[in-house]
Amino acid sequence: MTLFARRLFAVALYFVSLPAISFAQSRVPHHPLAALTAQEYWTVQDVLRDAGKLDEDTRVPGILLHEPPKERVLAWKAGDPLFRVADVILLRKGLTLQAQIDLVARKLLSWKERPDVYAPISGEEIESVGDAAKKDPRVIEALKKRGYNDLTFVRCEALPFGYLITPEFEGRRILNAECFDIHRSYITWHRAIADLQIQVDAADGKVVRVIDGDVVPMADGSITYEESIEPAQSDEHPIEIQQSKGPGFAVKDGEVSWQNWRFRFRIDPRIGPVVNLVRLQDGERTRSVMYEGSMSELFVPYMDPSIGWSTRSFIDSGEFFPTGLISALRQGVDCPSNAVYFDAVFSDSFGLPTIHSRRACLFELSNGQASWRHFERGEVWGRVDRVLVLRSSIVAGNYDYLIDWRFEPGGSIRLAVGATGIIETRRTKDKLSADSSMDGDHYGHFVDDQVFGVNHDHFFSFRLDLDVDGTKNSFMADRLEKRELPNSPARKSIWVMRPFMAHTEKDAMMDIRLDRPSMWRIINPSAKGRLGYPTGYELMPGTNAASLLDPEDGPQKVGAFSAHQLWITPYVPDEMYASGMFPTTGKGNDGLAVWTRANRPIENTDIVAWYTMGFHHVPRAEDWPVMPTMWHDLLIRPFDFYPSNPLMPSASSH
């Protein structure tokens, strides 16, 4: 039985054994922006096979919903015919192929060979390239030099190069393999065999280069954090969450209703949760806020020039999504007891549908804070805060990221990322020393004996297609500037707000500067509020960072979106990913930095905001063996959208 036949049998058996789940997940989509269903994945499979495009050497690392034109979606009404198209990425002996399929007409719309790009990496490749590395005589000799005569407990696995590191790799699917000592270890992120880099051509499984450096002894200790979790302390009493009348939100045909909020969402295999058609009910009016919001890309470059690390730079969403980035959620850890969970259907490396349970959760949260309060004449007035949280988890190898969309009753959306998981480390010959942090360049920080946590960055790009009271919007930067008061006896200076309207993309490349602060707003110049100001939404950053890499550095070319904290572009349907559709082993010839070179007009038109959320990470002892969750956020809040505080009973504009 062939590998594909075995996989097909396993999928069929799985669906038969879970008829209730299969029925729930295979329904006809209710909306043009709904997630692909199991039957639609099968349609992709059938159309490609009928066209003779699939064989034993072909893998299907990606099947994604091709979003229909925005104007068609906005004009669509329940009962209208659906328009559904899938974008398909295929890989055959190292050659990337690209197809587009009409899922309604069951028709192959296009088929292209793409020798100029590299398909994302699959779990099958990670394993097969690692196995090939272990069979190479040069690798065997290098491992023997380090004392590994029996390779039973040596595991090698492949990683893509986050950029094209050398012209000789052009047109070849070269992956970077590293090996781990897995003996007596539950986790092995700290047990990579140091100073050994293996470059493998994934198309034919041949090792093209072995870079063999110094022998670094492997410490005897192991980290088994799964055994170190202790029960709750005696003074930790249970905190119970009860909603006796059930959740305060409703979900029908993919649309969520909660208080004054209305929105849709789907779970995308590449970028996780995608929220669509976000609206606010304002009296008798339903007002648009955002057409679509999602994470677009994740860039993680490491800062160590040593063997195996100088080329370590990841564009996680674009490179690794076929491996299953969207993780399952656990009740009581990721989501509280009152959460409702949502499953997802993705495709495997053959393009067959697979069901993934609990890939998002939705819950109400009351955090004990006041949404507003005031004390006057011995009395306290106010209202307790409550938010609706849509949560998912992305696991990119060693790192876990919780992604939150938090909807607040006052019309704000808080977009939050919680970084946790296990930091990447390398072994060193050096022991810990009391003065190790006093001088010299430091590429990281010791977290254990001979275990070195390597410095790195995390940069998320969020694509925010805000449509404030309609699609024609503009971007304003309200600059806060000091003004001297030479004639005032009481003051020498104040600050004033000076509005600046961005006309083109270059006008709107924004950086956070404490010495030159500005407020960022998306406004609708044609919609005026009660006070005569244009209605708008402000983007209010939290703690953030900018890339320190040289713009001509290979990793930075691919992750160039990290150069600015905010970009504004005109809406273009195919501009979905900040580092482009195919960032693997990229040259930096696609993505935000490339699109914005045209310096297109962005005033009073359909625009998209791209927010970069990032942080520099110098590991600390407390980050080992598992990093405590560290949150970063962006607040998207109404600015002159309402006539007054919408949390007050009299705030409705009608």
Descriptors:
654 residues; 9 helices; 32 strands; Beta-galactosidase, Chain A, domain 5; mainly beta; Nuclear Transport Factor 2, Chain: A
Provide the CATH top-level class of the largest domain. Answer: Mainly Beta
Question: What is the first-to-last residue Cα distance?
Answer: 68 Å
Indicate the low-confidence ranges by residue numbers. Answer: 12-26
Radius of gyration based on Cα positions: 26 Å
CATH level 4 superfamily of the largest domain = Copper amine oxidase, catalytic domain
Largest sheet, order of strands side by side? 15-16-19-20-21-32-29-28-26-27
Topology:
Blueprint: H1 3-17, H2 19-25, H3 38-50, E1 58-66, H4 70-75, E2 85-92, E3 95-102, E4 107-114, H5 123-135, H6 137-145, E5 154-160, E6 174-181, E7 196-201, E8 206-212, E9 249-252, E10 255-258, E11 261-268, E12 272-282, E13 285-301, E14 313-315, H7 316-320, E15 340-347, E16 353-365, E17 370-376, E18 379-384, E19 387-396, E20 399-407, E21 413-421, E22 425-427, E23 444-448, E24 451-454, E25 456-466, E26 474-484, E27 493-501, E28 518-528, E29 534-541, H8 554-558, E30 566-570, H9 592-595, E31 607-617, E32 627-639
Antiparallel strand pairs: 1-2, 2-3, 3-4, 5-6, 6-7, 7-8, 9-10, 10-11, 11-12, 12-13, 13-14, 13-25, 15-16, 16-19, 17-18, 19-20, 20-21, 21-32, 22-24, 23-24, 25-31, 26-27, 26-28, 28-29, 29-32, 30-31
